[in-house]
Amino acid sequence: MKPAWKMLIGWVIVWLGTLVPASRAQEPVEEFLDALRRQGYFEQAQWYLQSLASKPYISQEQKQAVLYELGRTALEAANQQRNLQRRLALLDEAAKHFARFLSQAPNHPKRGETQLQLASVELSRAQGYMIQARRTSDSKEKQQLTQKAQQLFKQALTAFQRAAKELEAEYRKYKPSAQDPKIRQKRRKAYADWAKARLFWGQAEVEFALSYPENAPERKKLLEQARARFETLYSRNRRRLVGQWARLFEARCYQELGQLRQAIGIYEEVILNAQPSSTVPAFRALINKALAYQLEAWCDPKQAKYEEVFARGTKWLESALGQEERSPEGLMIAYYTAKAADALIAKWQKDPKRKNDITRLRREVVRRLAVVVRTPGPFQQKARELRAKYLKPGKEPES
User: Fold this and answer.
1) At what angle do helices 241-256 and 260-274 cross, to 10 degrees?
2) For position 199, what pLDDT does the model report?
3) Please, are residues 244 and 210 in contact by the beta-carbon 8 Å criterion?
4) At what angle do helices 181-209 and 139-172 cross, to 10 degrees?
5) How far is CA 344 from CA 204, 340, 354, 364, in A?
6) Residues 6+ apart with CB under 8 A from 35
7) Is the dihedral of CA 231, 237, 242, 247 positive or negative?
8) What pLDDT sits at residue 27?
9) Distance between CA 65 and CA 98 in Å, rounded?
């Protein structure tokens, strides 16, 4: 929950946003909404959207898009919601807004984007059920939740396929030879949306694959399908950011297929390619994700590059910006850094020359997992178990 003063600021921002002179031809609705959502002011964004109907200077196209924007707001709020039941409720709300938008404005320019958002809702629902399945210790409940998730994954794949087809058609409407700057801009945007749909489609296949046991044929088949999709997307977009994300997820498929050396090499390639633009948030996010996966691969017993993991992980954690340490990638990096320290302690346990190093590493395990153990997610329980090995009962270590 946000502090009261931050909530107040959010409402003030929205109130100021409503004081737009009626003489203005068009209000920058999308820019204002994006700013509110980036700051996590979702309630304020909803209130602002509901206020648009009475504004005479808002275009008809913008008024039609209110349902779409309400759906986006609910979806983004769901993605930041830690409470699983609340998250699923927000996803249901988002789906209703998107469905109503498609029925009320079937020819709106945002139709293709809406299909993509609906597919994202199905994927998020499936992920929610898989989180529940992994948390429960009841085997019958685990099976039921997994089956429900797999059903939603199938729906998500169908939805992404439909969205990709519609966005491709939108892209091909515009001739490559068009000279009008507005048409060229629309063509570029349509291509970007089409590429994003294919990227998300592949990600959904990976998530679906991981819902099956390691040796299941369905898992391997889905991973191979996703890997091929990412490879094709990368080959056609090598110099675009979406191409680099596709390359990253291609490596992820190799990793899940057990081809660790291939995966690690690609992760390193992605990091090096993005490094010159590391101050740009989108590229920094790419680097962080690639590093997290790389550390995981190096921690595999077949690689066992624990010193490399500890060095790189520590370097990243010491230079993390803002809330990066609490991001999914930050939590993953912290966990594998601590896991590498744990492995080094075991390796050096009988070497008397390493006594001081072991003492330092024991403190590092406890320190690096402090945030992970307090944050719900895939590493929370494992982090608690690992940290408990080095933390005296009822006592936190000195900082």
Assistant:
1) 160
2) 97
3) no
4) 160
5) 36, 6, 10, 12
6) 13
7) positive
8) 61
9) 10
Closest Cα partner for 221 from 236, 208, 239, 235? 208
Q: Which segments in the chain show pLDDT lower than 50?
A: 1, 4-25, 397-399
C-alpha 379/C-alpha 9 separation (Å) is 34
Within its chain, how far is the Cα of 146 from the centroid?
21
Give this prediction's pTM.
0.84
Nearest to 84 by CA among 173, 174, 149: 149
Q: Is 312 exposed, middle or buried (0-12, 13-18, 19+ CB in 10 A)?
A: buried
Helix segments in 136-240, DSSP class H: 139-172, 181-209, 217-235
CB-CB contact of 119 with 159 (8 Å): yes
Q: Which two tokens stand for residue 368?
A: 């690096």
Which tens digits make up the pLDDT trace of 73-84? 999 999 888 788
Q: Are 167 and 116 in contact (CB under 8 A)?
A: yes
CB atoms inside a 10 Å sphere around CB 83: 10
Encoded tokens for 252:
């992820």
- pLDDT at position 335 is 98
DSSP codes joined into one string, 151-168: HHHHHHHHHHHHHHHHHH
Q: How many CB atoms lie within 10 A of CB 255?
A: 21
What pLDDT score was predicted for residue 399?
38
Q: What are the b/e assignments for 156-189, b being 16+ CB within 10 Å?
A: bbebbebbbebbbebbeebeeeeeeeeeeebbeb
* CA nearest neighbour of 303 among 258, 369, 342: 258
Cα gap 351→369, rounded to integer Å: 26
The per-residue pLDDT for 16 is: 39
